[in-house]
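Input record (one chain):
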Amino acid sequence: MNLSDCHNFQDFRKLAKKRLPGPIFHYIDGAADDEVTYRRNTEAYDACDLVPNVLNGVDDMDMSVTLFGKKLDMPLYCAPTALQRLFHHDGERAVARAAEKYGPMFGVSSLGTVSVEEIAALSDTPKMFQFYFHKDRGLNDSILERAKAAKFDVMALTVDTITGGNRERDLRTGFTSPPRLTPRSLASFAAHPRWALNYFTHAKFELPHLQDHVSEGTNIATSIGSYFSTMLDQSMNWKDAEKLCAKWGGHFALKGIMSVEDARRAVDIGCTGIMVSNHGGRQLDGSRSPFDQLAEIVDAVGDKIDVVCEGGIQRGTHVLKALSVGAKACSGGRLYLYALSAAGQPGVERALGNLRTEIERGMKLMGARSVNDLGRNNLRFRTR
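The corresponding structure, as predicted from the sequence alone:
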């Protein structure tokens, strides 16, 4: 199987599984506990039917949206994800260049493997910095100031990682950052010599936003679950979020909102957006899917702040359903991480190109000339 054989999300997943050592593939692919929420995130879209209109003259259509004051060529943002250079040696560089070509927003994680300064120099596409609130307040100040100096357009504070989720696949495979060689993992790494060659012959794996403050994740191997549970500040509260919002002084979002109450509080503290998200099912298993929760959150705050639906997106029609409910845009990590793992920048470009084609085709078949033509009248929900 090659990149030319990848026509959809599942094709990229299969190729990524073929090319990555087992511990690294399962880090991307896995979720918390029994992975019920992980599956539910996508299954939620299957319970929603599209009702198209016809004869609307869709030869000239526009899928662009405005998100956080920036015009995007497509209603998507590539959610920030950690450790990308473990998946492909170009990491965030490849995603940034692909985003530059197709015009979604692009997110960089606090646990990113390429610095905000380099990303800013690489890409003019709208950029979001994802902030983890650490116990080390000096570290918090440092990464905020670096993102601000790099002129990132949005800061998003992740609020659903107050402790690490129970990611049992990582426990079984022994996944850590950086990778730790064990008798079990060594065989998998040896069976993927191309990955090993790229990992060991390119620049040393680093977490540039963290390494001057903490050794965990760069020089001391740790699991992500352990990092969240020990390095992040479990006392973080609404006052901390409000202070961070004020200190940033620009577009500010909370990533990981799932309740109407929290969505309203986000408005109260000055946020300009929220990501309705359960961290891809990687934190609290048994929680509701973002798509199932989207309508009541949009009804409560959608006229006040930008609402992004994040999680479970695998098809262009999933994006259309979320936009029809009232999301301003959609986002996800796995939707481009499998492609990054499979083929680097060309993989991400193909994944984004496939999604763009699917969204455009779907809008035409729905009779929608623009995103504004999509609405709840075009949806019907079935009981699962």
